[in-house]
Amino acid sequence: MTNSMAEVVKSKVILVIGSNTTWNHPVFGSLMKRAVKHHGAKLIVCDPRRIELCDFAHIWLQQRNGSDVALLSGLQYIILHEGWENASYIRERCEGYEEYRKAIEFFTPEKVEELTGVKPADLRAAAELFARSGVGALYYCMGITQHSHGVDNVKACVNLQLITGNIGVEGGGVNPLRGQSNVQGACDMGGLPNVFTAYQPVTNPAAVEKFSKAWGAPLSAKPGMTLTEMIPAAGDKIRALYVLGENPMMSDPNLHHVEESLEKLDLLVVQDIFLTETARLADVVLPGVSFAEKTGTITNTERRVQLTWPALVPTGNVRQDYEIVADLAKRFGHDFPRTPEGLFEEMRRLTPSYAGMTYRRLERVGLQWPCPSEDHPGTKVLHCGKFARGLALLTPLSYRPPAEVPDGEFDMVLSTGRILQHYHTGSMTRRSSILNLIVAAGHVELHPEDARRAGIAADDRVVVVTRRGRIETRALVTQRVAPGSIFVPFHFAEAAANRLTNDALDPVAKIPEYKVCAARIERAGTAKA
Amino acid sequence: MNTKTRQALARIGSRYPSRRSALLPALDLLQREARGHIDHESLVEAARVAGVPLSEAYGVQTYYTMFRRQPVGRYHLQVDTNIPAMLAGADKIVSHLQKRLGIRPGERTEDGLFSLETVEDLAACGTCPVIQVGDRYYENMTPARVDKLLAALRKGKLPDLPAQAHFSSQCNILLARRGVERAFDIKVYRKHGGYGALPLALQKKPEEIVAAVKDANLRGRGGAGFPAGVKWGFLPKDGNKPVYLICNADEGEPGTFKDRQIMEHDPHLLIEGMTIAGYAIGARLGFIYIRGEFAWIADILERAIEQARQEKLLGENILGTSAHFDIVVHRGAGAYVCGEETALIESLEGKRGNPRLKPPFPAAVGLYGCPTIVNNVETLANVPYIVQHGAEAYKRIGTPNNFGPKIFGISGHVRRPGTYEYPLGTPLDELLRAAGGVVGRLKAVIVGGLSVPILTAKEARGLVMDYDSCLKAGTMLGSGGIMVMNQSVRIPRVALRAIEFYAHESCGQCTPCRQGSRVVAELLRRICERRGAAQDIERVLELCATIKGSTLCPTGDAFATPIEAMVKKFRPEFEALVR
Amino acid sequence: MKITIDGRSVDAQPGQTVLDAARAAGIWIPALCYHPKTGKAGRCRACVVEVEGQRGLKESCALPVREGMVVRTDTPRIHSVRRMIVELLLSEGHHNCISCQANGICELQDMAYHLGIDRPGLRIDSHPTPLDDSSPGILRESDKCIHCGRCVAACQNGVVNQVLAFAHRGSHARVVCDDDVPMGQSSCVQCGECVQVCPVGALTLKQPRERKIRPYEARPTKVTCPYCGVGCQIDLYTKDNRYAYAMAHEQDWQEQPNQGMLCVKGRFGLDFVDAPDRLRHPLVRKNGELVEASWDEALDRVAAGFKEIKEKHGPDAIGFLTSAKVTNEENYAFSRFARAVIGTNNIDHCARL
After folding, report:
1. CATH architecture group of domain B3-63
2. Is C168 close to B62, i.e. CB distance below 8 A?
3. Contact criterion met (CB < 8 Å) for B512 and C81
4. Candidate from A234, A317, A332 with C-beta closest to C280
5. Minimal Cα distance from B59: which residue of C?
6. Distance of CA C116 to CAs C29, C44, C144, C148, Å?
7. Whether A223 and C317 lie within 8 Å, measured CB to CB
8. Using H for helix, E for strand and C for coil, what is the string for A286-352?
9. Do A287 and C231 touch (CB under 8 A)?
10. How far apart are CA B532 and CA B520, in angstroms?
11. Does any CB of chain C come closer than 8 Å to the CB of residue B59?
């Protein structure tokens, strides 16, 4: 996030797109609802599903799945044509305006209606509310990114916030809500194929030299493969995989392929606290410890680095995760620090945005990066006054449809995601007694009209089929989804949504298109093979 | 739900600056549509119209006694059993109805035709006993009149059974047109000098009117006697928020039935007063918050307001000037506490009628968070006279610091219970004479509505009825609702009935009022039923002493003070019951 | 600024209430309805004080400090009001500390103890209200409710789930879910904020009750929630090295990312740490089966495997999936292992998934 969560009550207008916030980030969802209910913020929700936030929204735009570039650009078309943009901000802080402006001309309200299904009057009302209410924040989540054109979606968000002058101001910002406790930290720490910590590129010789010196080893300057590239390459370019606390056998697209790939590996090492679907395929399983048994730092969605302390002493013959890695490194002649604080101290010396953090400083309420020195208070709002690259780039965008759209055989649009009571691949939440009391099994959300047409009653067993696979699950008949759309949560191994999903990737971010593919739904027992 | 209802609901919503205010009217409308109660679906609909969560809509619905969860009979008979009614023999009416209908209060006849309920004060103290059927009051009820009523209802007809209301006016200001036929009509009002003050007011600067009202020392007639002009002066200068004027017409203090005389029989007097006040304080919108039981009076007011609009006396550019003012009639739904101004504001905002913590006071933060003035009906009805005749003329009425006319409502054991307009400072004896004199021997009198300390006959002798004299005599002028009790009255029973009323009406927010009223009621019930101990009398006194001044709003004092006075002044009667 | 409370000069900040200033100075003022997260309510009347030069009693929770103000919290009048409040609250309902899950952390119990009330003097017989145990995580005992309104304020205005409200009026008033349905059938999402703020035992968690753990036996540790990216700060309560229950960490709550709130997963979804199928020892595949192994055996096999593949196919034949669920330190170590020990940049995690 460019900004901080507490600022949401300072926004005059909030645009939420592709985020079912009250389910996926419930506590922040509460802050958002509070901003609307008690602080007078206006709320615009853009979502194909009628999510809970729609009840609080002043305007709800129900765009078709995968049409976000058109929707966001359509808003910008109206803003620019009405002269509601922040001209001085564009002049002083942005570049690329001319080309961008030309590209926007494609997105007339009529064109946008054709692509998104959103009526020009509604689009106009949203554009006016967003551009003319005062400082506006934009929040998005996987509904924006998990598309074969996810990068374009994000750029469309950035463009909107740039032309309205909402970046680098309190209560504004482009704010992706991170879905996992330390997904921000994993990125910050260089858990990506192209960068070291704090996004120092592996292709930068100075960075390579710095890390090579610190780590006492020569380093490759060639960017590595992404997860979504490594898995299909298993058994071919990739011969061994070391998986730490992840469960690609549930989380990755087109699971059938994932399983085939993992089985082709010469060596699969899984380090986890449970024998997950992935661990079951492993050659070696290394038992680590849970969040409640470790010391360390976690970086949240607003870049806040917080300490976590061990509440329990691990039992059994298990080891701290950093110890396991250090024990392995030792076998290669490398000495790793043997305490979390030791690792943190080594890391921060190599990581400019974390350089000013110490365990002592983090103790109370954490610190938000960048925090370059020990007297720096941390940073709540990014890009104030100046962008990292100097001027912000307005990117010209064109509309691209999703990789797979409904047709005669697969007539429904399937999207996947989370529900309030469960988390990711379910390895933690499905072992929680209360959460399983509330939601014990998976389901597919289906609109009453479609249910009626398919002869499906509420709670019927149904089969969802795509070109990749099929699952059997329970029908949840609800108006939350639009007619012609279905939604399957991906937490449930016995009805794993990712047996269905399309492994089409965004060409740049390599993110799979989880939010749109073509599917068909039938009552169980009547399904064709 | 039919389209007509939908349209009506939409219209309700558009009347208010905030949608939320539509909740009470929406619930009222849906209850009427459903013939007497609100089910889950109606509640969901009302919540949707008002834009509130279901939980809050339910909280509101169950707060107000007029909203019902269960179906009632086609004719729902509600008998007022509060103290003025009790003094007039309401118990006999209840038992007569029970006998005739074969049901007890809270029940419904098998054929679904009738249901019976005993209710708290209906502001018909001078014409008790009273039965409310639907939107109508049947007053001066006797067993014979009850039989006539039931016979007509069985035929499906709401009969006309005129009440006999006594009144007289010595000042000819507030009740000047009380006896005039069709005085509610704007033509009649004009013929009798009405709307003479408004054009004069519009020629003055607003601050001149405020000054005149201040100068006249018009004291609030709702009960507290706080000077209206001073209250108006508390409004923030140069604020950028709208200012609201609210007329408090939630007449509910037992013993009080004066405001309805003005609203029912002379509504334009109130409208003229409000319009002048609105102009003076810079309000463009005013509300009349009228208790829900006065449904037909609300209709009268709405018709009068419409007439005034037609004649450009309300709305945009009043009488061709640049002044704008309009009035919305907002009906309550059965809650005594809404007579307290912050509770009233909450209720008008579509919430439970819970008093707010003060400060801030409404003049700073009132309706929808905006500066707001709340004045009683009678207070506002004084304003045209002051404008038309000047503060000096006004101050020639009454006694120093207690100027102007006052409507005294006299109920209980007098020959001609009714409303009497006399100058402030009139001796009580004179008022009692006007009301035909005491029936039997005077034992005690409550002179300012139920919330003020009772006076023994001896204490009442020579009492002068104005704010300061009453205070000096150890009681309060309050609303001027005088309840007269003769030697037949047993004070412990009055005390029990009084505390039952307050316990029923407590909003329930704060501990001393919610639970204190309940415990005091329990103790007094034990005493009256001869199950009590001497210690219980002490406990009542202790509790009253501690409750006073400890509650969130004045309701705690409103019951602790009179109960304490009854026990202290008539202690032997209580002691006799615990021996 | 300075104010005087009970003859003591006390430091106060502008904007502070008398209650805050008194508490900061260690002066005991009971307050059953005020909670920092839900704010002033004026309902319980327990916090009333007297201010020199002002008539009557003032709610200290709503009373802003003013330079030089002289406050008394210990007059006979205040004492009698406080006693009355406790007596009245105990006069109805069923306040049974012996079996109450809130025993030891109950603010009403504390107040009665402070005032030396051994036996309430007033009792009104009332019929017990049935427990509402219809929801998975929360037990409601309305007989213990003291009408403080914290849960309602928290639900309506804090977490804005808008389920709890006061219904009815006077002494019949009570807290209901939606239009008075059991919590388990209501729109409640079980965030547990109501339990978090309840001063008594009217709203309690089922988890510790089922585990027979009294709150005062359990010990909190501040942890970061393992679920979404909000980074909620949780007090994880444990007893005898077992999970007990979870509450939001409320110290400096205004500066915490979750501002003292949790969701259903953070509140109730952490018991997986005690799941019986936790991995307790390394496993190595032998003859197609995963079997228990020593650490040395497991680690040697991994090291040997990596060495062999690196030699045969080069370092880029090895891939690493690090984790969005482990700490920064662990991610850093893992990244260093991939890049420096093995020599590949093939490292990624499930940020995209």
Report:
1. Orthogonal Bundle (1.10)
2. yes
3. yes
4. A317
5. C167
6. 15, 19, 20, 22
7. no
8. EECCCHHHCCEEEECCCCEEEEECCCCCCCCCCCCHHHHHHHHHHCCCCCCCCCHHHHHHHHHHHCH
9. no
10. 12
11. yes
Which amino acid type is present at position B270? L
User: Cβ of C280 under 8 Å from any chain A Cβ?
Assistant: yes
Residue C157, min C-alpha distance to chain B (Å): 12
| Whether B54 contacts B40, CB under 8 Å | no
Interchain CB contact of C42 with B (< 8 Å): yes
Rounded-to-integer distance, Cα B173 and Cα B397, Å: 11
End residue of a domain, out of C21, C50, C74: C74
In C174-233, the residues whose Cβ lies within 8 Å of chain A are 189-191, 206-207, 220-233
Q: What part of C 215-254 touches B (C-beta under 8 Å)?
A: none
* Count of the separate structural domains present in chain C: 3
Distance CA A525, CA A463 (A): 8
Cα(B48)–Cα(B67) distance, integer angstroms: 18
User: B75-154 architecture in CATH?
Assistant: 3-Layer(aba) Sandwich (3.40)
Q: Which class is domain B405-486?
A: alpha beta
Contact criterion met (CB < 8 Å) for C271 and A292: no
> Exposure string (b/e) for B434-445, b if CB count within 10 Å is 16 or more?
bbeebeeebbbb
From first to last of the 579 residues of chain B, give the pLDDT tens digit: 788 898 999 899 899 999 999 999 999 999 998 888 999 999 999 999 999 999 999 999 999 999 999 999 999 999 999 999 999 999 999 999 999 999 999 999 999 999 999 999 999 999 999 999 999 999 999 999 999 999 999 999 999 999 999 999 999 999 999 999 999 999 999 999 999 999 999 999 999 999 999 999 999 999 989 999 999 999 998 889 999 999 999 999 999 999 999 999 999 999 999 999 999 999 999 999 999 999 999 999 999 999 999 999 999 999 999 999 999 999 999 999 999 999 999 999 999 999 999 999 999 999 999 999 999 999 999 999 999 999 999 999 999 999 999 999 999 999 999 999 999 999 999 999 999 999 999 999 999 999 999 999 999 999 999 999 999 999 999 999 999 999 999 999 999 999 999 999 999 999 999 999 999 999 999 999 999 999 999 999 999 999 999 999 999 999 999 999 999 999 999 999 998
Question: Out of 2.40.10.10, 2.60.40.2100, 3.20.20.450, 3.40.50.11540, which CATH number does the structure's domain B176-395 have?
Answer: 3.40.50.11540
Q: With beta carbons under 8 A apart, name residues in chain C contacting B552.
A: 42-43, 45
Which candidate from A191, A202, A226 shows the least CB-CB separation from C331?
A: A191
Q: Is C107 on the interface with B (CB under 8 A)?
A: no
Question: Chain A within 8 Å of C257 (Cβ-Cβ)?
Answer: yes
Give the domain extent around C255.
221-278
pLDDT in tens, A230-256: 999 998 999 999 999 988 888 888 888
8 Å CB contact of C85 and B519:
no
Beta bridge partners, A299, equal A305
Nearest-angstrom CA–CA distance, B99 and B411: 27
**ipTM for the whole complex:** 0.94
Could you tell me the CATH number of the domain that includes residue C51? 3.10.20.740
- C147 and B508: CB-CB below 8 Å? yes
Of B40, B508, B552, Cβ closest to residue C170: B508
Chains with at least 3 CB pairs less than 8 angstroms from chain C: A, B
Contact across the interface for C179 and B547, Cβ inside 8 Å: no
Fold of B491-578: de novo design (two linked rop proteins) (1.20.1440)
Sheet containing B166-169: which strands, arranged edge to edge? Answer: B166-169, B418-423, B405-412, B481-486, B442-446, B455-456
**Other residues' Cβ atoms within 10 Å of the Cβ of residue C15:** 8
* Final residue of a structural domain among C278, C297, C317: C278
